[in-house]
C-alpha cells in the first residue's frame, strides 16, 4: 500500500503503479489510509483457514515530508495486528520511506546533467507544490546542493501553489538572463500541472519554458518500491514492524520545542523518554524574576 502526500498530489501522481504491481493500492494518509487498512484487515480475518499475508505500507516521500511517515506509523500503531476476539489479522509492516533527501539530491543532480545535455543555454527550475514552511525549506536546501555540485547550469527553485506562482519564478530567471527554462519536479509529478492546475508550457507566458517530465522513470519508481517492500518483509520476518522507528520520523522537524516560556511561569508537564513510562517534570519560576 502506497501512502501519498504533497510530493505526489496525495497519491494522484502514483496512479500508474497498480497497473504494473497487481494488488497494490494508493491512498492519501489519515482517514483514507485508516479506512482502507481497516477493510483489508477485516477481509484477512474472514479468510477461512488461510494464513493472512502481511500488508506493507510504504510512505511515498523523497524525504521532504517526514510528517507523512510519522502520521502513517500512528495509523498502523492504532490499528494494531489483531482484534478483541483474538482473531489473527494480516501483519502490518511500515517500510522505509521511498527516498531520502540525499537520494533526491542525487536524482536532481542527474537531472541537471540532462538539462545541460538538452540545452547548454537552459536554466533549471526545481519545483514542487507549496506545502508548509519546513518541507519547502528543505526543497531550497536541496536546490542549493544541486546548484553547488551540479552540472554548471543555473539552478533555482519554486514551491508554487499555482501556475501564477510558477510564472513568477520563471520571470526571475529571465531577469537573471535565462533565455530558456526547464522545469524539473522534485517529486513524483509526471504531468505539467501545479497543484492540479495545468501549466501551458511552450506557449503564452510560458513560451520559453519546457517541462522536464518525471524525475524518475516509471521503471525506476517501481524498482525502488520493490526494494522497499522486500526490505520491510525481511525486517518483519525478524519481528521488526518498522512502526516504532516511523513514529520518530519527524522528530526535530518543525519548530524546536523550548521550555523557556514554561519555566518563566512555573509550568509543569509530562516528558516521555523512549519506550519508558512518562513522568512529570516541574519547572518552577526562577527566583528574583518579575
Rg over CA atoms, rounded to whole Å, is 23 Å
Widest sheet, order of strands: 2-1-3-4
Low-confidence runs: 81-85, 257-290
What structural class do the secondary elements suggest? alpha/beta
Structural account:
The chain has 290 residues and is of the alpha/beta class. It folds into two domains: 2-99 and 219-247, no CATH class; 101-211, Rossmann fold. The chain is 38% helix and 17% strand. It is built from nine helices and twelve strands. Strands 2-1-3-4 form a four-stranded parallel sheet. α2 (31-46) runs parallel beside α3 (66-79) and α4 crosses α5. The model is unreliable at 81-85 and 257-290 (pLDDT under 50).
Q: What's the SSE blueprint?
A:
Blueprint: E1 2-4, H1 17-20, E2 26-28, H2 31-46, E3 55-60, H3 66-79, E4 92-94, H4 101-118, E5 122-129, H5 133-148, E6 155-160, H6 163-175, E7 180-185, E8 193-194, E9 197-198, E10 209-211, H7 218-237, H8 243-247, H9 260-264, E11 268-271, E12 279-282
Amino acid at each position: 500500500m502506497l501512502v501519498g502526500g504533497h510530493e505526489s498530489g496525495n497519491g494522484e501522481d502514483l496512479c500508474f503503479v497498480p497497473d504494473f504491481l497487481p494488488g497494490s493500492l494508493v491512498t492519501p494518509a489519515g482517514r483514507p489510509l485508516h479506512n482502507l487498512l481497516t477493510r483489508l484487515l477485516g477481509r484477512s480475518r474472514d479468510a477461512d483457514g488461510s494464513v493472512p499475508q502481511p500488508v506493507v505500507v510504504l510512505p511515498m516521500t523523497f524525504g521532504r515530508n517526514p510528517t507523512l511517515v510519522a502520521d502513517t506509523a500512528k495509523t498502523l500503531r492504532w490499528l494494531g495486528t489483531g482484534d478483541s476476539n483474538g482473531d489473527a489479522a494480516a501483519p502490518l509492516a511500515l517500510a522505509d520511506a521511498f527516498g531520502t533527501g540525499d537520494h533526491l539530491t542525487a536524482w536532481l543532480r542527474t537531472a541537471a546533467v540532462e538539462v545541460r545535455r538538452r540545452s547548454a543555454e537552459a536554466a533549471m527550475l526545481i519545483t514542487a507544490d507549496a506545502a508548509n514552511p519546513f518541507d519547502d525549506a528543505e526543497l531550497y536546501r536541496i536546490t542549493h546542493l544541486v546548484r553547488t555540485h551540479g552540472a554548471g547550469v543555473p539552478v533555482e527553485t519554486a514551491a508554487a501553489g499555482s501556475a501564477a506562482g510558477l510564472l513568477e519564478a520563471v520571470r526571475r530567471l529571465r531577469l537573471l538572463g535565462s533565455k530558456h527554462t526547464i522545469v524539473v519536479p522534485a517529486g513524483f509529478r509526471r504531468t505539467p500541472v501545479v497543484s492540479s492546475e495545468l501549466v501551458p508550457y511552450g506557449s503564452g507566458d510560458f513560451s520559453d519554458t519546457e517541462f522536464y517530465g518525471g524525475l524518475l522513470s516509471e521503471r525506476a519508481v517501481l524498482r525502488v518500491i520493490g526494494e522497499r517492500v522486500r526490505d520491510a518483509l525481511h525486517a518483519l520476518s525478524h519481528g521488526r514492524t518498522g512502526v516504532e522507528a516511523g513514529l520518530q520520523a519527524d522528530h526535530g522537524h518543525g519548530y524546536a520545542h523550548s521550555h523557556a516560556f514554561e519555566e518563566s511561569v512555573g509550568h509543569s508537564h509530562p516528558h516521555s523518554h523512549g519506550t519508558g513510562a512518562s513522568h512529570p517534570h516541574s519547572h518552577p519560576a526562577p527566583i528574583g524574576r518579575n
